[in-house]
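Sat 14:20. Reprocessing the chain from the morning session after the first attempt stalled halfway. Input below, unchanged.
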Amino acid sequence: MEAILTIVGFLGAGKTTLLKHIIDDFSAKGWQPFIVLNDYENAYMDAQRFTKQVEDKTIKALSGSCICCSGIMELREVVNRIPEREKGITLIEANGTSDASTLVEFLGVGLHERFLPPVQIAVVDVKNWQKRGEHNTLEAIQIQVSSLIVLTHLDTVSETRQSKVIKALKALNPYAEISTMKAIDVTLLPKLLPATHTADAFDHLKAHWASCAVDLPHLPDTACIYTICEALPKTILRVKGCTKIGDETHYTYFERKPDGELVIRPFNGIPITGKKLLTIGKGSAPEALDKAIKIGLA
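Finished this time. Tokens:
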């Protein structure tokens, strides 16, 4: 039977980094992963980041809906259409606002018998854990119904902070295993059992944030990226973009995380949806994005 591993975690916690890590490890050990990615805006851009690791036909991007509620039917249909493989494993990266409790409850209903019950892995950014203000409840629920908790951003915090966060995680879910990315043995992941711990009640509609995408022009230099991100409303939690910079022939990808950290790196290939600026969070509107672009270009 084929295992299904769903990766959950707050925006910027490190879900994609974990997914890329375990894809390489699974592939090296002869497994055949199938990847499903979910995001409010343009999950296709994220999907292209994996094309050097797996074939295009083994990646499915789901955009424009949340897979724990309005998109659950589409997700279930995608999983049921995944072809059988020898040593196959399905890896799902949920968007950062997913209600992990609802996702694990409804995803397993109606799946083909060849699939094992879905198991959730929660990614925790130790540096920013429970510093999300009004979103702390959502982050905590993602922990309560996960079988494995993976700690990230450990190199940026003290041992005291690490101990404090681990103690809080164990209080929320005493049954989950806690690990780091480097310590994960992927051969044991398909053997994880679904969490039996229940989550607190939560109105998930409160986590349905606004999202938006607009065309992004060719930028003269990377300084424009910093200016654009700075000009966007502070209520926007996540910024992503892809365009060309200066005289460079390749495309450049950038993202601003909820804590304000800006990451810029070369993009893999040509974005199939064109050059875009994408945002998630309150204040995400075409007018706000266009205004920020104009400021950046000025």
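The CA atoms of residues 150 and 183 lie 9 Å apart.
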